[in-house]
Amino acid sequence: MTNRNLNFKHRVAVVGAGLTLFRSRMLETPQELAWLAAKQALDEAGLTLKDIDCVVIGSAPDAFDGVHMKGEYLAEGAGGIHKPTIRVFVGGATGVFVPIAAWWHVASGLCKRVLAVAEEKMSHAAKPHTQYVFRYIWDPVVEKPLNPNLIWIFAMEMHRYMHKCGVKKEDIALVSVKNKRNACGHPSAQLCMPNITVDDVLKSEVLVWPVQLLDISPTSDGAAAVVLASEEEARRITDTPVWIKGIGWTLDTTHWTNRDLAYPEYVRRAAEMAYRMAGIDNPRKQIDVAEPYDPFDYKELHHMEGLGLAKKCEAPILTREGVTQRDGDLPINPSGGLLGVGNPIAAAGLMKVAEIFWQVRGEAGERQVKKPVYTGLAQAWGDLMQAGTVIVMGI
Amino acid sequence: MRVGIVGVGWFGFQPEVVDYSFREMMFKAAQRAYEDAGGLDPRSEVDAFVSCQEDFWEGISIADEFAPDPVGGAMKSVYTVTGDGLQCVGQAYMMIRSGLFDVVVVESHGKPSDVETLNEVIFTATDPISLRPLGLENVHALAALEARAYMSKFGVAEDHLEAVVEKAHKAGVKNQRAVYASPGKSRSATPVVAEPLREADVAKFVDAAVVVVLASERVAKRYNDTPVWVDGVWWSTEFSSLEFHDWAFPLHAREAADGAYTQAKIADPYKEVDFAEVDNRYSFKELQHIEALRLAPRGTAKDLLADGAFCPGGRLPVNLSGGALAEGVPFEVHGLARLSYAVGVMRGEVKAEVDKAETAVVHSWRGIPTTTSVAAVLRI
Amino acid sequence: MSGGKPINPRGTKYEKVEFPVFEFPVVGKARYSYTTGEALGRFLAGLKEGKILGTYCAGCGRVFVPPRIYCSYCFKEVDGWLEAKDEGVVVTAVMSYISATRARLERPVAVGVIKLDVPGRQFDDHFFPGIMHYICGATEDDVKSMRIFGARVKAKWKRPEQRTGSITDIECFEVVRP
C-alpha cells in the first residue's frame, strides 16, 4: 500500500440513486424491494437495465430473510440476471461497502455502468423477535451458550465510551432527538418524530442499560440502490455526476473482549485510507456534510470521533453546541439516519450514500444543509463492533 | 496491468477435519500460501483480504466476523464475498487492476462436516414462496431434473456418465488430496440417488481451506519467480429461480467463460487452452461444462470423452485432478481447489499427463440450486 | 411536504396480514455441530477442571483468552499455553432487562467483560485477556453509577460434577466485596 498509485485510469461517479419506503413491515418480497429501489436509481440516471454491465448486491445476515445464498436469490430483483453479479458482505457495514466494491468494478475498466443494490427484510424473522436471529452472530463456542441478546455488546461499548469520556445519557439522547426530527424531511422515513425531546428518550423502555428503546434504530424492511459509471459514461449521462473521491475499510480483530471499546480504531483506519485517496488531511474542515452510521445514538458520536470529525470525547460537546444540526457548521446525518429513516441494515448504509449524493447535488429538498456542499462522507459499521466502511464523495 | 498468482496454500481435503476448527484450518492454509509467496508477511505486505463464504454454511450469522485473524488481516482491509472462491479471485483481479491495490489475499474455507442438516440448508437456498413449500427431502432431485433435460436433448446415456466417473477416479488417484478417488469403482453398482443419478454421479462433501495470494505485475516478482497470470475472470448468474433457467444447458457457465475468454483474448478455446479444471460435482455437469466452456460443440462432449480427448494425456485434459468427484466439494472453496490444482500443474509441481501446460481454464459452479458460474483463464 | 429526493419512494406498508403467509422455521432446521478445534477444545477442557487457559505470543507478549493457536498480530503460531486466574476486573458492564428473545426479564441481569489476571503479567486497556460473562452480586445502581467499572470479580464455578466443558461451567463472575 505504501507504493500505491493514486492516479487512477478511471474516475468513478455516482449518477443516480433510489430508495423504497423504509417500514417495519412491507408487503413486497425482498426481490420486489430490490427491484423498486433499482428501478428508481436507473430512472434517475435515465438508464435501463440493458445499460448495466455488472451488479453488486449487499444484504446483511441471510437468516433475516431465511434465504441461504441470499445474493443468488436477490440477483433477479436487483437486475443481476445474465450478468456478472456479486454479493459483498461486511455485516452492518455492508451498505457503504456495496458502492466501494462497485467502485473497483468500474475503476478496473472491466465494467462501465454498475448497479449497486442493498436490501433487507427483517420482518421475516419476526418470530419470536428479530433479536433472536442475532443470537447466531456470537461466537458459537464461548459466547452463544450464555444465551446473549445482541444489544448486550452495544450497551457494553456505549457504557465503556460513557465511562472513558465522561459522557452523560442526556448528551447522547440529543443525537436521537436530532435524527428523529431530521427524518421528518425524508420521504422514506419510518420514524419521523417532530416533537421528540431528550426526556422522551430518557423515559423510554430500558432494554439493556444504558441502552433504552429510543436510543436504538427500529427494525425495518427496505431497499436502496445507486448507479455508478466511468468518467466518460458519467459525463454522457448527467451534467452533475458526483465523484467517488475516496474509499476505505478496516476489520478489527474478531476477539472484541480483548480490546478497548471506547474508541473505534477500525473506523479511524478506514477513514485514513479514504482520506489519503481523496487528498483530505483535515476532515473537520474539508468534509462539508457527513452521514456516520447511527444504529444507536452513541454510535454517531463514536463514529464522528473515529472519522476525525471530532477529537476523542469531543463529539458530545459539538452535538450539544448545535454544530451537527442541519444548519450547523458540520451537519451530521441530515437524512435522519438510521434512528429516523429506519434501519433495513444494508439498505440503511446505502441510504446514507444516496443522501450524500443528493446533498452534493443540492437535491435534498428540505433536508438540504445550509452550508454549501462540495465534499461529503458516508460511513457504516458492523460485525462484532469491528468493521468500518467509509466513502468520500464530492463534485 | 497483469495480475499474477504468487502464492497458493491449502489445508484439509479430508471428509472430516476433527482436530482443527475452521479458523485453524484457515490459519494453516494461509501459512502455507504465504510461505509459497516467498515468505510474504501478511501484516505489512498485503493491501486487502477477501474471504469467500456463506452464513448458512458456517452456521454463524455474519460469519465475516471471523475472517480477519486467521489470515493475518486483523485491523486491515478484509471483506467477504458470498460466493465461490473464484469469484473472490475475480474481485481481487478487479481491485488490483484498479491500481489501488498491489497485493490481495483470497481465502475460502468450508467445513461441511459441521453441518448436521445439509439437505435442509441447501434447500433453504430455493425460493421461499414458489419452491420451498415442496419440502424436497432430496435436493439432488433438482440436479437430476437438469441431468434428464440435458441427456434427453443431447442423447447422453448413462454409459457416458459412467465414463466421466471412471475418468475422475482414475485421474484422482494420482492427486494426493483426492480422498474419494477410488479407481475401479463401478457406477452401476451404486444405488440410485435420483434418476438418472446414482451415488457415484454425485460428489461428496469435504472439509478444506485454500488461500491464494495475488499481486500486480509490478510487484509479483518480489514474491515468486514464476507467477501464474490471471488473464481473465468472469462470472454470471443466469436466473434466481430455477423455473426460468435453461434446464438442459448451463448458460451461466457459457456467459462466464465468454467473459473470461474475451479478457484473455482467446478466440478458439478448443485450440488455445491446454487443459481445464471444471466443475463436476455431478458427473453430467462435467460434460455440460466442457461444452459451455466451448471446449467441445454442444452435445459432443460425450463422444470426445469416449475418444479420450479429455483424459489424462489426451488432446485437452479435463480434470486431471479428478475434480470434485474425486476431491469432494468443500463448499465455496471449490473454485480455489480447481485453481490451486491448475497452478500446481502449470508450475510443474504436480506431475500430470499433459503435453503443454501454458494456458488453462478453470471453472466452478455454485451448485444446486444456483445458476451461477465463474471461469478464469490462467497463463504461465 | 416537499422532501427533496427520493421523490415518491415506493413500497407498500402493511399492518396486518390479509392473505396466507408461509412460515418456515429456518433457523431450527439448520443445525450444526461446531468443531471447537485445538485452541477452544483445550479451553473448554480446562473449564471442566476449573481452569481458565490461554495462549501467549512471545513475539509481542500478548496473552489470548479465549485462546487461539495463532497470534493475530505477528501472524505465527502461539508460543505456548498459560493459566489465567479466575479473577480480574470489570472493564465494562451493563444491566440487561430483556432475554435473548427480547422478552422482559423478571429480574435484570448484569453482564460484562472481565479483564483476567495473569500472574507476572501486566495489561493495559488496549489489549488484554478478557471474556464476556454474567456478573453476580452487582446491584442495578452499581451498574448505572458505573461503580462496577474496575471492580474486582471472581469466578463462581459450578460444582465439578456439574461441569460439562462449557463457558457455562462458570455460573458468573461474583463481585469481591472488600
Number of strands of chain B: 11
Instruction: Give the C-level CATH assignment of chain A.
Output: Alpha Beta
Biggest β-sheet of chain A, characterized? 9 strands, mixed
> What value does the Rg of chain B take, in angstroms?
19 Å
Name the strands of the widest sheet of chain B in spatial order. Answer: 3-2-4-7-1-8-11-10-9
Largest interface: A-C, 74 and 66 residues
Tell me the fraction of residues in β-strands of chain A, as a range. 15-25%
* SS elements, strand count of chain A: 11
> DSSP helix count of chain A?
15
Structural class assignment of chain B:
alpha/beta
CATH superfamily of chain A: Thiolase/Chalcone synthase
Order of helix and strand elements from N to C terminus of chain B: EHHEHEHEHHHEEEHEHHEHHHHEE
What features would you describe in this structure?
The complex is a heterotrimer of chains A (395), B (380) and C (178). Chain A has 395 residues and is of the alpha/beta class. Chain A has a single domain (12-126, 218-394), classed as 3-Layer(aba) Sandwich (Peroxisomal Thiolase, Chain A, domain 1). Chain A has helices at residues 30-45, 62-65, 70-74, 94-107, 130-134, 151-165, 169-182, 198-203, 231-237, 265-278, 283-286, 297-306, 315-320, 337-340, 345-361, and strands at residues 12-19, 54-58, 85-89, 113-121, 206-209, 211-212, 221-230, 242-251, 289-291, 375-382, 387-394. In chain A, strand 5 (206-209) and strand 6 form a beta hairpin. The longest helix of chain A has 17 residues, at 345-361. The relative contact order of chain A is 0.19. Chain B is of the alpha/beta class and 380 residues long. Chain B has helices spanning 22-36, 42-45, 55-58, 85-97, 118-123, 140-154, 158-172, 217-223, 251-264, 269-272, 283-292, 301-306, 323-327, 334-347, and strands at 3-14, 48-52, 78-81, 103-110, 192-194, 197-198, 207-216, 228-237, 275-277, 359-365, 372-379. In chain B, strands 3-2-4-7-1-8-11-10-9 form a nine-stranded mixed beta sheet. In chain B, strands 5-6 form a two-stranded antiparallel ribbon. The longest helix of chain B has 15 residues, at 22-36. Chain B is globular, with a radius of gyration of 19 Å. Chain C is mostly beta strands. Chain C has one domain (34-175). Chain C is built from three helices and ten strands; from the N terminus they run H-H-E-E-E-E-E-E-E-E-H-E-E. Chain C has a five-stranded mixed barrel. Chain C has a three-stranded antiparallel beta sheet with strand order 2-1-5, with helices on one face. A two-stranded antiparallel ribbon of chain C has the order 3-4. The mean pLDDT of chain C is 92. Chains in contact: A-B, A-C, B-C.
